[in-house]
Write a structure and sequence with these properties.
7-stranded parallel beta sheet, 6-stranded mixed beta sheet, 611 residues, TIM Barrel, Rossmann fold, single chain, 21 strands, alpha/beta
């Protein structure tokens, strides 16, 4: 896992307001355990603790109706953050987010909030966000809700699913499949979840439907209590109350069908057990390939912005119970769940979000990132106009020096983001200069000038060392421009450039399948690292084209950043894998350079193009 600070530990606080076990606490505990095992210093602060973790725990009345108690708690938490040199606080409830917001005022502590459910409307939420630098929404409907109802910035809301330790939830063995039910026709149905609040209504509807249809089934209630339910005694007599269980694959394998929502559905699918999604908001039904995306977006029935509460039609429920899923579909669903919820893939995403929050808390201004290509000595005939004459490029550098800019490379930005370099050393006026393709004139003209003015730049090279000209945009009326190739490429190591990847052969990412794109991203990185014996941490999408999926592939391939043109966030860490670069053209003069490096330019550019 990536590090944030120099002593090789991230100091993290998970702040909750638990008075009983919920999915939010299981989520936080799962992350805390993984972070602890990764060598980080992890604390949990909450009203109470109901799920064991190795994190150090402190009881605090995070959720309180007393204003005096709230401010006393805020003072306590603030002191805790300072004394323990906390870098990131991760909140898991509305009460926790509000407390953290006030406790860290004026502190350089990054804050991330996971939103698990629909939020109550309030004036304060609409005026400003109390959820910190970054918000993690566990499903798409929550992101839509936060944007629609509170006008929160979409770039600060990331959909990242619940993290589940997949090792605990495995497919049933052949013995378990053959022995979990003594009667082939008599199904074992487990209803899992609380029996208070909206989940109480859901559970009552399920039990009433089972009684009404006179289902030939054994019915089990896990995680709730029959005494909470408004059912006649004869109905309650049909149900076996199991109580709270530390759920695992071994538990799920005891049942033929699981009825639940949220995390329960995820765990059941990972365990290879047919799952009926029925949450606080809506009935999704038996989860199948055809409705999996809908189930995912609603957190398996818990979040529906237009819902008036859970409803259930007995005939529909009966039909879903009677469906027999084939092993192939069950396994396909399990593979989808592994991809979406596995802790091994979710934990690095959360870690990257922590780093973004930490960076944004410490530096929240726009960093101009300029895109150059060719730096020829004489005018060239080019329809693309992606060159700057050598004499004019020197004038650009003189302008940057006069304005007081200091250049940064992406590896330096990553070191600040991780806390390997103290933000006290961050430039007052940072600037990133980037060059694409690796033209000879970059080496012979641009590099000496960059060194002359004590600047560095980022160079995006093609991994195919045999490419010696720009075959992708050379035309009959525009001669090919020479690219440094073969053994000469080693000269880049002594240049003013830091090397990044530009793929293998300048193909468009949008013309590749997911498998081909991931291979292009990973193998070009590995090839350049082998060739130059240096880490390659940044990727530039060819033609400036990317998609949200391609940006995620760059993350999966192990890059710290990826850049494109024309799209991205207003700030670097709002979209670190879709970084907006400003095109530089031959006619750019001091005025246009002033405009393109001004703090308002990116917002102006997006508004002008209605992006």
């Amino acid at each position: 896992m990536a590090r944030l600070i120099y002593d090789e530990q991230v100091k993290i606080v998970h702040l909750l307001s638990q008075t009983h076990l919920t999915g939010a606490e299981v989520y936080a505990a799962t992350l805390a355990r993984a972070q602890y095992d990764g060598g980080h210093q992890v604390y949990q602060v909450s009203n109470g603790f109901f799920h064991e973790t190795p994190a150090e725990k402190f009881e605090l009345e995070v959720e309180t109706k007393s204003r005096l108690c709230f401010f006393k708690n805020a003072r306590w938490l603030r002191k805790f953050l300072i004394v323990n040199q906390i870098q990131v606080i991760h909140t898991h409830s509305r009460a926790a987010a509000k407390l953290a917001f006030y406790a860290r005022l004026g502190l350089k502590v990054g804050m991330v909030s996971t939103v698990h459910g629909q939020q109550h409307n309030s004036i304060s939420k609409k005026l400003f966000s109390q959820y910190g630098e970054m918000i993690v929404a566990v499903c798409e409907n929550i992101k839509i809700h936060l944007q629609k109802d509170f006008s929160y910035d979409a770039k600060r809301i990331l959909v990242v699913r619940n993290a589940i330790d997949a090792k605990i939830f495995s497919e049933p063995t052949a013995f378990e499949k053959n022995s979990n039910n003594t009667s082939i026709n008599r199904k074992k149905i487990a209803i899992i979840g609380r029996t208070t609040g909206p989940k109480k209504t859901r559970t009552e509807l399920v039990l009433k439907a089972l009684i009404e249809m006179n289902a030939d089934a054994e019915i089990f209630l896990i995680g709730g209590q029959l005494k909470d339910l408004d059912l006649v005694p004869s109905a309650k007599a049909r149900v076996t109350e199991v109580g709270n269980k530390q759920l695992s694959g071994a538990i799920y394998h005891n049942y033929d069908i699981v009825v639940g929502a949220g995390r329960v559905c995820m765990e059941a699918l990972l365990s290879g057990v047919p799952t009926i999604a029925f949450g606080e908001a809506e009935y999704i039904g038996l989860v199948q390939i055809e409705n999996y995306s809908r189930a995912l977006a609603s957190n398996f029935g818990d979040i529906n912005l237009n819902s008036t509460g859970p409803r259930l039609e007995t005939a529909v429920f009966k039909h879903d119970i009677e469906i027999v899923l084939g092993r192939a579909e069950i396994r396909a669903l399990r593979e989808l769940a592994l991809k979406d919820f596995s802790l091994s893939s979710i934990s690095p995403r959360i870690q990257r979000i922590y780093e973004s929050a930490y960076f944004l808390r410490n530096y929240s201004k726009w960093i101009p990132i300029l895109m150059y290509h060719k730096i020829p000595s004489t005018e060239i005939n080019s329809q693309h106009r992606i060159f700057v004459l050598k004499k004019n490029f020197e004038k650009h550098l003189q302008f940057f020096k006069w304005r007081g800019f200091k250049t940064l490379t992406f590896s330096e930005l990553a070191r600040f983001r991780r806390g390997e370099i103290d933000f006290a050393a961050f430039p007052k006026k940072p600037l990133v200069l980037t060059f694409d393709d690796g033209y000879r004139d970059n080496l012979e003209n641009a590099s000496p000038l960059l060194k002359k003015y004590n600047f560095r730049a980022q160079l995006f090279l093609l991994a195919d060392s045999g490419i010696n000209h720009n075959e992708w945009d050379a035309h009959s009326d525009e001669p090919a421009h020479e690219i440094v190739s073969g053994l000469e490429r080693k000269h880049w190591l002594q240049s003013a450039f830091e090397i990044g990847s530009h793929g293998f052969s300048h193909r468009k990412i949008t013309e590749l399948s997911e498998g081909e794109a991931l291979l292009e991203l990973k193998s070009s990185k590995e090839s350049l690292e082998k060739e130059f014996n240096i880490p390659i941490n940044t990727f530039a999408f060819t033609y400036g084209i990317t998609t949200a999926a391609a940006a995620d592939w760059a993350f999966q391939a192990g890059y710290d950043y990826s850049v494109n043109t024309d799209s991205g966030g207003l700030l670097l860490e709002e979209a670190p894998y879709q970084i907006f670069r400003v095109n530089i053209f031959p006619e750019d003069d001091f005025f246009s350079l002033w405009k393109k490096t001004s703090s308002w330019y990116r917002n102006y550019y997006f508004n002008k193009r209605k992006k």
